[in-house]
Amino acid sequence: MVLSVIFYKNLGVSNTDIALYTSWLYLPWVVKPLWSPVVDLLGTKRAWVVLLQGTVGLAFAALALVIPASAFFLLTLTMFWLMAFASATHDIAADGFYLLALPEKSQAAYVGIRSVFYRAAMIAGQGGLVLVAGLLSARTGDPRRAWMVVFGMLAMGFIGLCFWHRFVLPRPESDGPAERGISLFTGFLTTFKSFFARPGIALALGFLLTFRLGESQAIKLVTPFLLDPGAKGGLGLTTAQVGLAYGTIGVLSLTVGGIVGGFAISRMGLKRWLWPMTVAVHVPNLAFVYLAAFRPSGLATVATAIAIEQFGYGFGFTAYIMFMVMIAEGTHKTAHYAIATGFMALGMMLPGMASGWIQERLGYFHFFIWVCCATVPSIVITAFLRINPAFGRREAA
């Protein structure tokens, strides 16, 4: 999802097309609740995790091979789509595996640690691999060849980890079909019915759909903003500089924010931190308004602004994760968590599709002001949420 934006920007695709077509890649996460009961009712989460990691690795290999083709845009999007479906299904299994492999009292405390490894992958990808692509492009003058190397590296990494995890992942005793002795169709209907029958589900879905309304638009245009020259309102950074400032320093700040957020909730609960974390996610968007308004030339200034914004987002996003964990509690926690993340992805996909078109008509400065305005609906909905004061606290769990 992240590398596709930078990849297409380097290959000269317009902001409108980048935002529209890469936003469609969220669709597998939107519709994955439709097949999440299959993962919940058939086989083990561990087996799904290993199989799908191998599938993603093969998709990366195919992606690298089709980049030189004349119809590269269609072919690479097809490979991204295959990868997205495999990754979305992997999310179902991996999230369920997390909930099964840890006791409830440890889940809140380990949200931050879980985020560390997720962000480490983003640093390696959004930071390290973008640096590699930028340096190879500068050395060879051929961005296509540079990205072939990057995606080839990812293919080897995923296939290697697939074999590694085949042997080292733990085997929880509870890892198996959610319910035995029932038909798949009956289990499917029961899973969905129990989720939408939860008290206050309409308000909860409103929160899931709007919490990332601003981010869903900004995330598609931050990288183009950093790469575009000053004549187009951008900062004119190189691909390697973006990899360092946004993909490394920014993601490190995001990771630290996630660790602090997980620790805070484990100490005092989700209810206590919901409002502060909501503010922490939304207010730092002003950093991009500042960058677009003054367009500083120093990389240190840009990296500092990005670090502040990313720390706030990492800290506040912990509340969103724990909110999804809360509404997924029950017998079908794997499938229910997948349904919740499906609504989260829908809230990312639809606004993101239009974000490139909006930016090209408003310019970067007014676009980032619009992003700040788009955070208001989630702030309003947060005021009406009802959270169990004990939820998320380590000692309460």
In short:
Helix content is 78%, strand content 0%.
Characterization of this structure:
This protein is mainly α and 397 residues long. The protein has a single domain (2-167, 203-382), classed as Growth Hormone, Chain: A. It is built from 18 helices and no strands. The chain has helices at 2-10, 15-23, 27-31, 36-41, 45-66, 72-101, 104-107, 109-140, 143-168, 184-196, 201-210, 213-227, 239-268, 270-282, 286-294, 299-327, 333-373, 376-382. Helix 12 (213-227) crosses helix 17. The longest helix has 41 residues, at 333-373. It is globular, with a radius of gyration of 21 Å.
Approximately how much beta-strand content do the residues carry? under 5%
CATH architecture: Up-down Bundle
> How many domain modules?
1
| Uncertain residue segments | none
Number of strands: 0
Q: What's the total helix number?
A: 18
Which structural class should the secondary elements be placed in? mainly alpha
The radius of gyration computed from the alpha-carbon positions, rounded to a whole number of angstroms, is: 21 Å
- What does the average pLDDT come to? 85
